[in-house]
Amino acid sequence: MVQIGLRLFRQITLANTSVTASMQTLLMNMGVVLLNMLTGMLIARGLGADGRGVHAAILLWPQFLAFLLNMGIHSAALYESKRQQPGKDLFTGALLLSSGASCAAMGIGYVLLPMILHHYDSATIRYAQYMLFVIPMLHLSFLVQAMLRSMNRFGLYNLTRISVPLLTAIGLGLCLWLDAFRPSYTVLSYFLPYAPIFLYLGYRMYRQLPGTLRGLRASIRKLTSYGMRCSGHEMLGTASLYADQLLVAFLLSPSALGLYVVAVSLARMVNIFSNSIIMVLFPKASGLAKAEVVRMTLTAFRLNVLVMLVGGSVIILLAPWFLSLLYGADFAGAVTVFRLLVLEVMLTESGMVLAQAFMALNLPGRVSWLQAIGFGTSLPLMWWWIQGYGIHGAALGLLCAAVVKWLYLIVQYRRCFGVGLKQYGFQKEDYVAVKRLLRKYRVKGVSS
């Protein structure tokens, strides 16, 4: 029995089929979520609500600006790598474009942070500015992971994803052991792991890629063309993802931000399954015929909804016990916000699974409009409601925007693909596919 289990584990972690890649990513997502829960517990219990807010304010800005100003370069690298064999020219072109984007992000952040974090002390603001220098390393990590996905190396890709939170947990443990558990050190525990992992992988990847730099100029043109078209939805998606936390940091106290960040981070554990699908669906569907892309996406969507409904319902019911157990009594006031955010995550992430069809069919503009509509809806609602209802207003604004985005997707799927409402419901073939998948792994696990 042990041998069968080990063989099945090796098969799941080393194979590169689309189903196995999804299984790999799901398993690693579960590991990442557990590690993030562990680090979140350490931060919340070690720093309290106020300290958790200061930690979040410093950590938030490098991540936000890195995602906001990546200019679609990494999605473009993934897309172009699926269309043709990736070479040194493509990787180098993406690296040069990422470096320019990093410089712009650091400059903008350095100027804006003193104005945005005006109610934090000067030491916190200055340290937040220093942390902007990690943005180039974050951009390198995005590029390396995109290239690994394009080459179907999901085993190594998932290993990089779990290595960072694992090293972060070790770093936080060292902070506790050395009696240095303060925001300035805890933030370093989150950022330092990126350097050894992605500098090494970036160097190895460049050495192993074929070709020369002769096509560098053409590669930069291709990357810029696709990147500019999908940068809109990526920038708006990032703005939508972080706007609530940024507004809470700007309008409310550090303790309110601490409560809200805990609720957000815990609510996003619901998207384990959908993230696994999204990470695999885009590279696997790129280059396929339109009908096959739509069929594959709808099947993935229906399975995702089923899993999220079951998991989300359980989490919503257990919310009071969950928050108190993991983070302590100081964070019990985040229960209602947490429940609202779980509903928002379920709607938003299911919609993003559907959006992968547009990305795979070279229609990133549709996704840009999706994000623009969501951001345009949520931003004014959150601005008004946070001032009136505190952190609950932020959650309500996001939930309303998720509903509006869903309506837009239904209309676009009808216009572009002829998909009716019945096709979103669970189909008979979905049951058959699940049974076939379970039977396949049972047979392979025994026969191996």
Automatic annotation (TrEMBL):
InterPro entries per UniProt: Poly_Biosynth_Transport, Polysacc_synth
Query: Chief subcellular site?
Result: membrane
Q: Which domain of life is it from?
A: Bacteria
How does it sit in the bilayer? Multi-pass membrane protein
Location in the cell: Cell membrane
Enumerate the transmembrane spans.
26-44, 56-78, 90-116, 128-148, 160-181, 303-323, 335-355, 367-386, 392-411
Query: Is Transmembrane there in the keyword field?
Result: yes
User: Could you tell me the keywords of this UniProt record?
Assistant: Cell membrane, Membrane, Transmembrane, Transmembrane helix
Name this polypeptide is given: Lipopolysaccharide biosynthesis protein
